[in-house]
Amino acid sequence: MTVYNYYVYPDKTRPRVSQMLILPPFQGEGHGAQLLEAVHRFYCGLPKVQDITAEDPSENYVKLRDYVLTKLCQNLPSFDADKLHLGFSADMIKEAQEKLKINKKHARRVYEILRLRATDMSDEEKAKAYRLEVKKRLFGPYRKNQRELAKMRKCLRPEELVSHMGQLDTQTQHEELEKSYQLALEDYRRIIERLASQA
């Protein structure tokens, strides 16, 4: 594993995982999770560290990071099962950042995973509340597309606007949003299963 320290104004650093390699014969045995957890535990003790990031993370690395960060956060008081149904809070962001050097974006994903674990998905109301909470985060890029469309309407001719409309179609956005939600749910369930098997 290679980690570089980057300067953060005015007096902090931001360690960035640049490369991580587990040789094929040793993959699937938990070594990656142990290594990443060791890096987090090392940097957590350093007061000058802002947060820990990764340089261009692969899909597998993101899943590994989600697992490790969820494992680390599950025992924090702000991520207690009783508090998860109240929504993602400033206390969660602050505690994850101060104690584990986790940024807001990653703390949000951890919250979603732990909330799924604490939610009875057979209860329609609870399942709907959870789905809406996750989709609220996933909707961010689509909201940006809507703002871009409004700008385009002001400056493009109608024939130019038509070519961009297909990319920003509302029905397509809803389908993509649902697809993103289902993929996230699938990943989150795998992490929850892995946490349960490690307990």
From TrEMBL:
Q: Which residues form a coiled coil?
A: none
Q: Which SUPFAM superfamilies match?
A: Acyl-CoA N-acyltransferases (Nat)
Organism domain of life: Eukaryota
Q: Where is the Histone acetyltransferase type B catalytic subunit C-terminal domain?
A: 65-116
Name the chain's protein: Histone acetyltransferase type B catalytic subunit
Originating organism: Xenoophorus captivus
